[in-house]
Amino acid sequence: MLGLPDHVRTCLFDLDGVLTRTAEVHAAAWKEMFDDYLRHRADREGVPFVPFDPVHDYDRYVDGRPRADGVRTFFAARGIDLPEGTPDDPPEADTVHGLGNRKNDLVLRKIDEQGVQPYEGSVAYVRAARDAGIRRAVVSSSANCRAVLEAAGIADLFETRIDGIVARRQRLRGKPHPDTYLAAAQALGAEPGDAAVFEDALAGVESGRSGNFGMIVGVDRTGQADELRRHGADVVVQDLADLLEGRDT
User: Fold this and answer.
1) What is the pLDDT of residues 33-60, one digit of tens each?
2) Cα–Cα–Cα angle for 132, 225, 68, nearest 5°?
3) Distance from CA of residue 171 to its chain's centroid?
4) Staple 203 to which of 9, 64, 69, 92, CB 3.0 to 4.6 Å?
5) What is the residue range of 92's domain?
6) Any catalytic annotation for residue 36?
7) pTM above 0.90, yes or no
8) 239 classed as catalytic
């Protein structure tokens, strides 16, 4: 019924793009922040302004990663070297952490303006997993994970949450490293081989593969099914409801 191997009794879900329609919000916030910085840098240094691509650049460099890692990875691809700063840097600071905090402010503003909508197919799947006695966790790089779950009205569907706040406190490396997913499995008393990872981000799929999880489900919201498979997805679906109906794209 759930499309899982019989030995898999634990499900670990990414948040943005898998459970909630917030991946688009994050992509828009990244673009606004990066384009603002790149435009000012182009004017200041007399170099061409090449905007952030909210599909290609988002998928390749920032999706699924902790904020600071997203800033580092994207700027490394552009050959731009920024001061690291500290996590407490104000959003006005042109540092790795300052720009990450600027992006976070933009996300929070957009969520406040637009609200949070869950994917109904994902909600149906998680409820079916709960009813089947499957253990359930949310694993997200976002420090806003709890607020997003509550705004979407689905916080009560999960037994534990490993998010950006927990990762920082426990010094867990972010995706594509497997640390956060391994921590979630451990919190639910599961071995990685007996747990399934549900991800829409290439970095997240990589983290599932490197953690040797029992099944990795890629959720294709943007037409990147082949890339999800190349990065390690065992199954790719357009919506988690497809698993309930036995469909694989």
Assistant:
1) 999 999 999 999 999 999 999 989 998 9
2) 90
3) 18
4) 64
5) 24-114
6) no
7) no
8) no
